[in-house]
Design a protein that fits this description.
about 375 residues, alpha/beta, Aspartate Aminotransferase, domain 2, Aspartate Aminotransferase, domain 1, 2 domains, seven-stranded mixed β-sheet, three-stranded antiparallel β-sheet, about 35% helix, binds pyridoxal-5'-phosphate
Length: about 375
Amino acid sequence: MEKKIFVTQPSLPPLDDFIPYLERIWDNKWLTNNGEFHKKFEAALAEYLGVEFVSLFTNGMIALQVGMQALRITGEVITTPFTFVATTHAIHLNNCKPVFCDIEPDTYTMDPAKVEALITPRTTAIMPVHVYGNPCRHEELRRIADTYGLKLFYDAAHVFGVRKDGVSVCEWGDLSMLSFHATKVFNTFEGGALITNDGNLKKRIDFLKNFGFADEVTVVAPGSNGKMDEFRAAFGLLQLELVDGEIAKRQQIARRYREALGDVPGIRVLQDIPGVKHNYAYFPIEVDARAYGMTRDGLYDKLKANGIYSRRYFYPLCSNFPTYRGLPSATAANLPVATRVAERILCLPIYAGLAEKDQTGIINTIIGD
Ligand SMILES: *Cc1c(COP(=O)(O)O)cnc(C)c1O
């Protein structure tokens, strides 16, 4: 293969469809700070996701940081090492200490059975991640959080549109963060949101994302600047019309991978979870070197030699980065499942525009024909 195939490719609406939105912004001359499109996009997102309150952000990282501040999270925060670094960084940058909890082998999400042993008098919150769009075990996490009086703040960056038993997964917890980064299922170039059922919390979040301003003369706290601008809010409105089609195409691609790779010795593929409407944000496989006859890194290199750029999300674990590896909870002994999965995981290309013949090429490279 001559052309390069990346792990994802953003979907974009026809450019002509965006022009009327731009003309409107040029007429309004209102570029940011809760403009017309911002209001419309917040309402449309709440409607689409089936949630009560949405606060738009310039990206997911700032949303995480502001969300922690809004919930007044301090001290120690129990989290997962098997995530994108933003989760751990947000905890660190909010002057809190990440405490790493191991994950489950079948969903790669935080293992609720291992949470309670990590709680100390300094613990104030649990920050799990619905990694790859797999919903966490919410009932168990909620029970632990309520028993110990902890906040439950989900990094929901991967679960856009995911539902469990008909309920939007990003409605769970005290707060959930979404990311609309270019690499996500739903993108606004850069962007993000916080989701809550608590109207007072939304109000506080909206102050904190605008420097802390409650009105012209009242600054309630040292807030950040996390506002989404009109350009991206307008673009998001347009993208919202296309996202169901994007997810449907990803589902077909996931089905084909599962059929083709399900019986390959040493390759593990996950199936849909009963009761969950998935978004197929990622297509992770696990490579067992002995059974497959090649290491995960060997397969990664082989794919790359064929122009296929798979990704080892999430290797290395966040607990192995220099800032965090000295923490008591960062040891492999505390994180046996996460450590094993990080050594084996590989995310294959999946996106609506992935051509069938390109997917065939990926499959054949893995099968070895
Ligand atoms: C993408 C991502 C983020 C960060 O979102 P940005 O919008 O890129 O700032 C945070 N957590 C997870 C798990 C992510 O995948």
